[in-house]
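Hi Q.,

Before the meeting this afternoon, I wanted you to have the adenosine-5'-diphosphate prediction in hand. No need to reply - just skim if you have a minute. The sequence and ligand are here:
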Amino acid sequence: MFNMSKFFLVIDQGTTSSRIVLYDQKFEIFDFVQKEFEQYFPNEGWVEHNATEIWNDVKNLISKILKKNKLIAKNIISIGITNQRETTVLWNKKTGKPIYRAIVWQDRRTANLCEKLKRKGIDKKIQKITGLELDPYFSATKIKWIIDNVKEVNKNLKNNNLLFGTIDTWLLWNLTKGKSHLTDISNASRTMIFDSQKEKWSDEILKLFKIPKKILPSVVENAYDFGSTKLFGDTIPIGGMAGDQQSASIGQACFKKGQSKSTYGTGCFLLMNIGEKFKLSKNRLLTTVAFKINGKKMFCYEGSIFVAGSAIQWLRDNLKFIKDSSETDKLYKKANKDENLFFVPALTGLGAPYWNPNARGTFFGITRNTSKENIIKATLDSLSYQTYELIECMEKDSKTKISEIRVDGGMVKNNSFLQSLANVSQIKIIRPSNIETTSLGAAYLAAIQSGYLKNTSQINKFWKKDKIVKANIRKSISTSSIIKWKSIINVVNNFY
Ligand code: ADP
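Predicted structure with the ligand bound:
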């Protein structure tokens, strides 16, 4: 007997794993499957993925979840895609093969090029058009690196066989067997070649990096007829697409100006909805498209911290302090409170608001009594301090006070971390009942496109809170440790 229920199927393609999540029509998770994939570190500061492996994993995981639940293509109303952003793939459209491994957002190989362009003052122009900092983080210099360094490029360009895409585009192209070469506006706004106000690829920036326009996908809204796939039996429409952080913002129902969410996964990303106007940050935050749905475009400020959960993985895999990330919750509580240990986890450079790709991790204040528990506590606290610095920048830029933040991502299962965050920031930290907001956002988008939801205001009623955490220390105590933190992170930033 086949199951007759209908679901939204979300492809959540992250930095370290791919997940397929089935949502029922109440937007509750019905089931999910997940697979980690290989990370390649061919040189210091380089991070690569095998795009073919990612696609095969996604395809196999979809088949697996359908089979596991005795579902067929007809049970799926629509597919939503959400993805690690900025990661860059160039492929041959005849063979369907990437011409180089995907260069991952964390990859710093183009730091020198960015530095050179900054010295020429080009960063100002880039910020004005794209809203972004000139940094190796974004796709532009990664595309340029592949064009400049991979032999096959010229031949493919001449034959009109070369295509570029971020992971969303790559997956969609494969799902539709090459029919759809599209990206959505939230992903496009992270490439550093997209004019977020005019909503088109910037000819000026393309010229600067010598990137041919003909390899780029077309840019569309987040809820859209992206095409369909026939790879799993009958036709399944693909109706939603958004970069992971913007998707999490949608999943957290941050639709009103001023609402903020912070996701703590591999990295940490704080996004604040700033309304319909494109405004540049004066405090080194990014201005990026939150979403465009039913013709309405919203922007947000974003503060990106490159290392969050990956620091916990480092404690687990390199220092062998723990077997499982969840142990950090209990061990945090056991840390000797008299120790004044600070950790700047700049393991892959510093993101907002420092933007220093060359910075590296540093401990301050180690004593004979410093224990593993103190190191764990310092690691979790470092994310609270960094979040606080982003909040400060956002409040200055937006001239509004942030009174609460909705949090999500794997790390927010950790109650010690949430308490640390509330104590340092002295604002209300709210964890929703579904912390898988990234996939939830893409499910909502697919539901809007297929007519199950009319608009974003219908999404609000699905958002439910699970826990509110408030500060349990005085503000003066948090202020004095923030002052120490700032002086230390500035030493690190200036040293490198
Ligand atoms: P991503 O989507 O970026 O792959 P997730 O949102 O799945 O990340 O979060 C996974 C990250 O969260 C991992 O880096 C893991 O170390 C961290 N993590 C998971 N559970 C906990 C926990 N209880 N305490 C601290 N960190 C955790």
